[in-house]
Each structure stands twice: as structure tokens, then as C-alpha cells.
Amino acid sequence: MLPQVVIIGRPNVGKSTLFNRLVGKKLALVDDQPGVTRDRRFGDVELLGLKFQIVDTAGWEDEDAHSLPGRMRQQTEAALVGAAAALFVIDSRTGLTPLDEEIARYLQRSSVPITVVANKAEGKAGDAGIYEAFSLGFGDPVAMSAEHGEGVADLFEALLPTLEPLQPEKPEFEPFEDDEEKPLGPLQLAIVGRPNAGKSTLINQFLQEDRLLTGPEAGITRDSIAIDWTWHDPKSGEDRAVKLIDTAGMRKRAKVTDKLEKLAVADARHAVDYAEVVVLLLDATKGLEVQDLKIASHAIEEGRALIIAINKWDVAEDPSGLFNGIRAALDEGLAQARGVPLVAVSARTGKGLDNLLNAAFETREIWNKRVPTAALNRWFDDALAANPPPAPGGKRIKLRYITQTGARPPRFVVFGTRLDHLPESYRRYLVNGLRRDLGFGSVPVRLMMRTPKNPFAKN
Asked: Which residues are in the EngA-type G domain (predicted)?
């Protein structure tokens, strides 16, 4: 395990900018308005050879514990537990504020080593704030410009005495890797849906802790947050690795006018693109809406394996009728993924969560499936014999053979002649046959047509 370093400070001092600078990627959403970050975000850092995990937190605010800012502060306080060090970020251009001094008093009661980072110190505009930072009682402040990358070496020197003894040991030798196919890694499971469907509550129920910020307010989640977790499968008795990805709620595009919400939705779509299995969470009290079908279609278009989960099942009216109605609507509205797994869950009580995870692992296995070329072409010959391709204009379309070119999602190429004249209906016939006869079910299947070049054709 890498030692953890937590970034703490009041809103809008540049914590997320510093986080992005240290991880070397724009993972955290950044905007001029305060309070963008709400949940803790983790990233691995290698700073001049020093390895650690950095934790971005919400801006510290002095609010009632039951309010949204108060609950965000509780998440920040929880991040300090078990941390190896903390970076207390101030705005050197603004100088110390009463809230900075309140945070300092709280941190002085902590046993975690504190380094003050005087951010936005480019030029001389921040000199006064840097000198003020000495009064906080945490030693020499580190003058930085997270936006421009200035002061990184000074930060390294400040963290080195604390983190160097905690560095992971290097292996004496690298393990030999043979040519056998590597086993699958952690299941990349993204939870998506409309605002207030219960996505963060579902992940908290998986983890059995209040890891993500939740509440009655819609649209609490902004950043897509990835959390490594181990699920104990009661069916097999095995421990299985999962990377849970929480995402911002996706509203109709016409309703998304705020710049920050646009960034959050774009981040959620990005998370879908890199997931293996996408769980679309529906609200049982609202049923299936057009926006849900649009979210599902996006996941399918990106080639992700899809599962539909109906949340708030514990308060659903007429559960049987609701389930059957959603099943019928999905089969009609998602013809390209007919039979997509549908699971009833309750994020509040934990009902159906093991069924959901079993379905996710089974769906990923299908999504990764490969069919031997010989078996694939036996199926192909039978499909052509049962329903030969048409002959438009009296000229035959010859389909010679098929091969699988990849998985994740399954991809196939059919070779033949005059394939540009093959009707779309026949292509759908082949795709449906692949799903039905070769066990690909509802996962996205890509089928391409390729005609070999004629070496004697005139240029």
C-alpha cells in the first residue's frame, strides 16, 4: 500500500488543480467557482521517485453538520484518518482568512504531519500570503503555483522526511510472464443513471461505509469517483476484485445549461467509455423514462456490457407489474440489446446486490468471450444454408468465411464479394444468430464486412 497524502483547505484555493498537477492528468473537475469537489478522489503519484497516493477533498466550510457543506466537511475529516501526511493549501494572493485559521486549529489537534502549501504564488503577488503562513505553526510553507507547476521540487523536499520511510519495498526480481493469456483484472463497474437514482447510496451499501456523499439533493456527485473494492461471492466463496465507478447524474441535454454540470456529465460519459460493465440505475418510483434509454444506448454504442438495475425496490408499488413493464419497454426500446439483464435492488437495504454483482461478472465473461474459428465457421455455414444471402439484380453475393478479430466487445469480420450490396436486414440476421447460437446474449456485437482487393482491377 502506498502512503496517503491528503489535500485540505477552504474552497477555491486550488486543491483540485494541485491534485491534477501531482497525478499528471486532469482527473478532477476544476472551475473558478468554489465548491466543485464534493467526494474524495484518489490518485497515484510518483514525485521525483517518491511514490504516494494523493487524496483530493472537498473545500472545508464552517456549516451545520446536516447541510450539504457540513456533510462534505465530514468526508474531509474522514480522509485524515490513517493518512501519512496532509497538504494544507492556502491562497497566497488572498492571504490568511479566519476560515484558514479555523482549519489550522483543527489540524493542530491531529497527529498527521502537516505541510502548508501557499498556492498561486507565481510572481510576487503571493509574497505577503507566504509570510503570513509562517504564523500557522506548521513550519516553513511551500510556495507553489499548481497551475504552472512551480514549486514541485520544494514540495518533494518537504514530504521526503515523512514519506521516504514508508516507501514500498522494491522486488528483488521481476516475475517471469509466459505467453499464456493473462487472467482478467478487477471488474470495471460504472454506475450511471439520472440524478437522484441512488448511485452513490448503492456504492456506499456495497462498501458498508459512508464513503460517498449522499443526501436528498439531486446532483450531489460531480466527479466520477473510482473505488477499489473486494466482493466476497457467497455463491463460490471467492473474493473478487471490483473497481466501482460512481458518476454524476445525466439529465436531458436540453436541461443541462450550467457549465459545471456539463463538465460533470462529460466526465460521466468518459467513465462509461472506460468501464467494462455499465449498470444503469433506474428509480422504481419513477419507472423507465426516455432519458434512461438514451443513457443505455450510449453505453451500447461505446461497446460496453450493460445491466439495468431497478433501485428503491423496497418502496415500489406493484413490483411485479413494474418489473414486467420495464422488461417489455426495454426489449422494445433497446432492440440492439434485447434481453439485457434486469435486476431489482434496494441500495438502502442491500436487497439484490449479490444478484447484481453475479450478473455483472457473468456479463463481463460473455463480453470477453472468443469463439474458435472452426466452430465459428461451422455456425456460419449453417446460417447461410438456413437463409442464403439475396441476389440483387440476379448477381449472387458470396459470403466466404467469418473470423473473430477481437473481444471487449466481441468483433467479427465477414469476408466475401459484392458485400456492399448486402442488405442491412441480412447483417442483422447474422448478428442475431451470433447472439442466439453462440451465447453472446445482449452484449454489443460488432460485425464488419470486407471484400478482398482484386489485384487485376484497374486503378
From this structure: 3-167, 187-368
